[in-house]
Specification:
- The chain starts with a helix and ends with a helix.
- The protein is 79% helix and 0% strand.
- The protein has helices at 2-24, 35-106, 118-123, 132-149, 159-187.
- The chain contains five helices and no strands.
- The chain is an all-alpha fold.
- The chain is rod-shaped and about 110 Å long.
- The chain folds into two domains: 2-68; 74-187, Four Helix Bundle (Hemerythrin (Met), subunit A), CATH 1.20.120.
């Protein structure tokens, strides 16, 4: 904005000097003419310059407003994508929590086939919204879920497997709470 006002003041200063030259009697040109013709010439030149400067400034403002609006739209789209990623991940984690809870309650591993990890796999690359602590916890949790899922050899639980599933369930609930907090943070 400072540059704009400096530019305008230089233009007005130049106009005032050139308007005063013919009136003051200083002759810089060898051609002669009446004061009216000088004023008409300078008025046309400087009117065009001022019109061009104002038109350029207005065009600059409009372009700046459009760019700002586009950046705001892109930021809103990114936030909406992040919110959708979090919601999908929360849904998958809650589903896995219910499956683990059923398995532990029923003391039967046949429910393990319903454990999911597809959303985590698809979102793993595009999770720029997630801090490293949550990412590490999610990664460890899914590694644990996949290793538990591979234990389906016998439908009965061993004691260590129940403890492992309980720990996994606690981590799942903790992660769901953290992700819900992150969701509220993005929605605010």
């Amino acid at each position: 904005m400072k540059v704009f006002w400096t530019f305008i003041s230089i233009i007005f200063g130049f106009i005032i000097i050139l308007y005063c030259l013919p009136v003051s009697g200083i002759k810089i040109y060898t051609s002669y003419g009446s004061i009216d013709s000088w004023i008409q010439m300078y008025g046309g030149i400087f009117g065009n310059i001022i019109g061009g400067a104002i038109g350029g400034y207005v065009a600059f403002l409009i372009a700046k407003m459009q760019i700002d609006h586009q950046n705001e739209q892109e930021n809103n789209d990114k936030i909406n994508r992040k919110i959708n990623h979090i919601r999908l991940l929360i849904g998958e984690l809650e589903h896995n929590s219910r499956v683990l809870h059923e398995s532990i309650t029923e003391k039967n591993k046949r429910y393990f086939s319903r454990l999911q990890g597809g959303i985590w796999k698809s979102l793993n690359i595009s999770m720029d919204w997630m801090d490293s602590e949550i990412f590490k916890q999610l990664f460890d949790l899914y590694m644990n879920i996949w290793s538990i899922k591979r234990l389906e050899s016998d439908n009965r639980f061993q004691e260590t497997e129940i403890e492992r599933c309980n720990n996994c369930l606690i981590n799942l609930n903790d992660l769901v709470n953290k992700l819900n907090n992150k969701l509220e943070e993005f929605q605010a």
